[in-house]
Amino acid sequence: MEEFKKINRRISVNTKKIILFLLLSVISFTNQMTDNGFKVLEGYPKNYERDHMDGYGGKDYIINNKNPYKLLMYFKVYGGGNQYLNQSLQNSDDRNDVLKFFNIDSLDIHYSSDFIELKNGEKFLYGRIILDFNDLDVKLELYYIDSNNESKKKVFIKERNFNIFNLLDKINSDTTEGYYGIPPYGEKVTIITKDKIIYKRTLFLLGAEKEMYENFLELFKDEIPEEFFEKRNRYKD
Question: Cis peptide before 45, with omega less than 30 degrees from 0?
């Protein structure tokens, strides 16, 4: 009888160990799932009163990541109507899923999804700004579909007229990371620096992000189609 009690106690202890092991495994797996995902950024978008349309425009993302660019920036306004509804690059909340979309090929396809009709018969798709590590000038690439329905690219190079490095330092030093749902809005940018990926509707750009974008638009105001500015002003109103 005593031997039976000892065996029973050993079984009970082993059972507890197994249960504890399973619990720790579940906790570990859950933590891995959490670490692999994003957190929702509470209080974002900033300076914005949330309403029932939040989420219908997809998600904005802020990611801390080492990238091979000093600066690569895409910008676009949509043609109007509902074309920009839920025009997110990716609606996932998994960090790895989102990251794989932030390459030039995927971004080129994504930013080509809609256009602005120009008075000359061309269709403006998007702009891309590049600041190379070994180049002090800024390159602007504008992508179109011409009147013959052929793809077309115009390239402009200008000397910077503002302190971009100070703005880049501010952007790179911000360790905020996560995502938030947004309402539909017809203008967006992707900013990729050596340490950050920022995918936002321009309504929600903050601080150095907003200042840099507006400075670039001012620098290239004579090269960017006037219809772009007309359209973005309509979204602001």
Answer: yes
